[in-house]
Structure formats: C-alpha cells, structure tokens
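Before going further, learn to read the protein records used in this course. The integers have meaning only within a learned vocabulary of local backbone shapes. The record below shows the convention in full.
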Amino acid sequence: MLDSIRSVAQGWVGKALLALITIPFALFGIDSYLSSAGSNVAIAKVGKNNISIQAYDNALKNIRNRLQSEGKIDPAAPDLPEMKSFALNQLINDQLLDDEVKHANFAISDMQLTTYITGMPEFQKDGKFSQELYDQTLTDAKLTPNKFEARIRADLLAQQAQDNFAKLGFISNARAEQANQLTNQQRVVAVAEIKTKDFVDQVKIEPAQVKAYYDQHKAKLMHPEQVKIEFLLLSAAQLITGVGVDDAEVRKFYDDNIDNIKAKEQRRASHILIGFGVNPTPEKKAEAKAKAEGLLAEIKKAPKTFEALAVKNSQDDESASKGGDLGVQGRGYFTPPVEKAIYDLKVNEVSNLVESEYGYHIIKVTEVIGENTDFETLKPQIKGDLMFKKAQDEFIKQAEGFSELVYTQSNSLAPAAKAFGSEVQKSDWLTRESAAKFFKDNSKFVDLIFSAESLKDRRNTAAMEVSPNNLVSARVVDYKPATQKSFDEVKEGIEALLKLEAAAKLASTKGEAALKDLRAGKPVADLQWTSEVAVDRKNAEGLTELAMTQAFKTDVSKLPAYSGLADKQQGYLLVKVLEAKTLKSEDPAAEKLAQNELETALNSEYLAAYKQSLREKAKVTVNEKLLLGSTENN
C-alpha cells in the first residue's frame, strides 16, 4: 500500500486534473491482448502438442510483470516484438524439453522431489523446513500441492535433460589464457574516411533512370490509407470528482499503515565510534566514555568539525575515511540504540552519547529520504490515494456496462457517452504511422481501427483496456484508401536516392583501391588519418563502434596492418593498426572470473544448439498472424 502512497505523492493531483479536462488521446497505451481469439486457439504447434493462446498470454504477462517490477520497461509501453518472440520461444523450448524427457525416459523419484522441495529456501524457518510456511506460500500463489509439485518435477526433469550439455562448456587453462589475451589486447589505431557525400556532385542521374526506378517501385510509392475516427473513453480519473473521502477515513488509513509508512523512510547519518572492545572492564568502558564525551564537547562548540574529528578519531575504519558517513539506510539496518537515535534526530542535529555493544557513538543525521511520516504532511496525499482507489472501484463496476453498451449500440458512441457522462472525441486524418504515434506505438489498436470490419461496417470497436483503469472504444467515421503517388511527387526524392547510391559506390571503389595500395606499401594521397589512439575492448577513446569492431577484426600478423569496410550511408572506412600488445592482468581472481564467464557462455551456446536440434527434429509451426495480432486486412 505504501507504493500507492508514493504514486499519489508524485501524481495524484495530476490524476484528479485529468477528470476536469479533455483526456489527451496521445496519452493512451493500449494493453496488449490478442483480439478475436479464444483461450484454446493454438498459437503454435510442437509435434503433436498445441501451445494455447492462453498459455502464451500468461507467459507474456509474467515476463512483462517481472521486467516492470525490475524497472526494465515502461509499464505503459506496449509489448515489444522481441518480448513476444521470447515468450513464445520459451514455451516452445519447454514443450520440446518435455517431449524429450518423455522420449528418453528421464525420471525424478518421489524421494528426490521431496528432498528438493524441503530444501528450498522459500520454505525454511529457523533452519528447517516449515510445513506451515509451505502451505501458506502455496495458498498465496493459489496453487494446490499437487500442481506445485508437478511443476517442480517438470523443472527438475528439464534440468536433468540439459545438465549433460551444460558440462560440455569446459575451458582449459591454455584456452582461457588465449581468450584472455585476446580480450585484454590493446591496439594503437588510426582511421580515415572516404565519405560518400564528397562524391555526390560527381554523379549525374538521367531522367530515364529516375523513371525506371519509379516504374519498378510503384508498389512502395503510395500515399498510405487514412482514417478519421471518433472515440469514447471511460477512465477512473474521470470518476474522481464523483467520490468523496472524509478525514476519518484518512486517519484510519494512516493508523492502519503507519508501520509500513515509517519502514520506507531512509536516512543518511554519520557517526564517530569510540569502541570499548568485547567483554570490557568497567575501567575500559569509562576510558572510552571519557574520550567520547570530550569529542562531543568539541563538536558542540564547533559543529563543522564533526567530519574532521571522525576521520581522526572514529574506530569504525570504513566510515571514518568518509568523515563518519554511514550511507543511506532504512530501518532495521543498525543496532536498536543507534537506529533509535538516527530516527529521533532532525537533519544536522547531533546526538548525545549512544551506547551499543560496539562502544559509544556520536551520531549526526545529514539527510532524510522518502516520505515525511507525520499525519498532517501525508494527509492530502493519502486522501488523493483513497479518492483514486474509490474511483478505481467505481470504474470496475462501470466497465462491464460500458463494454456492453458500445457493443449493443454499435452504430454510435453517443448512447454510451450519454449513459456514462463522457464526451465523444474526434481525431484528424490518421495514417497507420501517425495513428501508432498517436497511441504510443500500439499496433494492436491501430490494426483494429484499420481492420476490414471497422472500415466496412463503421461499427464501434470492442472496448479495449488502456493503461491501466481506462477503457476506450473507437469508430471509423471516414476513410481514404491508399493511392499511388504521382511521378512528379517523388522524382526529386528518387533522384537524390540514386545519387547517394552512386556516390557510395564511387567512395567504396576509391576505398578499396586505397586499401590495396596501403597493403602493398604504396603511399596514398588525400587520406586524412585521425590521431593515433591506444584502444582496448573497453576503452574506445572516441572511436565509433564500427571503427572499434573493424580495428579488432584487422589481421595484425604484420604491422602496420590495414583493413577497410564499406558503409553504404557514410562511405568507406579505412583502419590502420600500428601496434598490438596484450595488457597483462595482475588480478588472478579476475582471470578466473573471466574463465568462468567464458565457460558459462559456452554452456549457453551448447544448450542453445541442443534446443535447436530438438526443434529441427520436431515439427514446429507458429501462427504468425495470431502472434503479431494481425487482422483480416493484413
């Protein structure tokens, strides 16, 4: 719930304002789902087994949720093609492994299964397997023991099938040393470019060439089809003004969640520790206390000396070198007396002596991060959150009726607009490209708008959920089919393209001739080499990625060494390597880590090859149209 408080703190006012103004069309990110497909429809077939659309949808959601929880993708972003392919390939590989397990008669005994599950960290309490924790975990995940154990058994069988291949990734010390030398090689490099743009003026394109190109590429030289649409939105944000939250509700929420609220607050503190050792004598403690009191007196006289005194006197070596800084920490990190002092102090306030099992501390709080936890500060934020939560609940109640009404009254959005107090909004002319930008690259919604059904019947689309707590239905009100672009419209662009292509060929020809001469030891005029730089695989020193790749692909058996690469857009890149040497690593642990990483990479390659071999033996077919969410008009 505290995450909700944070989201409210950052944006609940904005949410409320959305209910008072027209909702911008371009803010919507339509949630991915596969329209017009039942849960039993196969998205892929592996041998005799089908992978259902429901299984694929669940796998995609799980991946998306995991990446969102790790902050690796924007929660409002539509599903990427790479994510879809990854989810489906994972399901196909799982099915292939399952078939192989059955074919090869792999087995996991009940005893092996029991031993594995009872050893899982998730079910340990006080160093032992906890039946209570096991039952509760499965209940929270909505899994029966049989279903959970079947899932674990399947995972273990799949792992058993793969283990032998993973062991093939052994790297000898000699091979590891060779790989390490290549990885740690440093090269002294210079580059020269023969640029395409320098040859454009030398190129003359005849009108007949332009016309020939036009005739050959007419299918691509089209004005795209366009639509005008009207749309209707049902949004939780629109419902905020119709809900109310009184002070008693706000206070109850605060009291019920105060522990969680406080748990999220973090503080940066510094300390000076004067230790008295383990099992100290009274005399030892008195000596440490006297020294600490003396330092505290100095700090109270001159607070700005805290950091300097920490560096000189604190017996916590790690923090002393940083002026006593302990970093940013939340509750539960420090021992109780130190934590209490840190959370009792105000920013820049210095504590009295604090005794812990380590000695006497003088503590200074330097920063408070996170929510201010007092009620009056959080009251407007909590109220906004509760209002939005009530609006969400009302949205859920109304969503079904909204979806049903735009379907049953499919000739117009007006009845639904009237029933739900919304306003039908209209777009200008939209191509597929501009519509995708309009809807934040949501190809699903664009495909639905441009489907044969929408264009022909002009009926309301099904209500689609937007990110999140939003439903939208649209209707095509006007349509322009794709039309051929005239020759006069495109001839200048075609001529420029043909000039660029011809100039690139001239640059490449000159580059190849220069490379031949350089390798033969002949001088080449008009080459402007960059300054020589020493680069390794981690430090490019200003070289482009293309230049770096070429530099380390260059054969350095004879120096200076030359290589070249044609870049259609830029021209021709020449690379000169004057020196190549291996940087000796002084860290055996780093070399061992590199060897382990190489073995892991090889393991992955062997496993990938194994899975590919299974795929080649089995008959795997994918419903590409369903995977890409294509509609009838594609």
In short: The first strand starts at residue 42 and ends at 46.
